[in-house]
Amino acid sequence: GYNGPIIGGNGFHSPALIQKSGGDAEGLIVGGAWNICNPNPSPSSVIFAANFEAVAGYPPDQFAAQAYSGAWQLATAIRCADSVDRVAVRDALGSIQNMETPLGTFSFDENGEPVHDPIAQIVQNGEFVPLALAVSEGE
User: What architecture is the 39-117 domain classified under in CATH?
Assistant: First the structure.
């Protein structure tokens, strides 16, 4: 069988993948929007993770952070538009620049595409670990 590295996109970044694959996910490298173990978390990330765990009883995953950040951005756009009209909200979303979210600083470019830094991660000991952290610990 294949023994080389496996690199996947955001869809691979799921705790279920690790659980269902046994130890076979070890070494998998994925891109993701967020990791609770980010060595340089934003203040919003720290607050979000603590509040989520206090309510849910377990730490958040990237999908919880993305959902929270998206809802927060939408609420901000509605507040800025002072309307729920879809065009007004769309335009307000497009004007968001450098918004601090659990994902980090978030903006939209002129095409409406999100601008924020993803985080490369590797599965180590059954957990997603920021790749930069894994590399620095291996030195």
Answer: 3-Layer(aba) Sandwich (3.40)
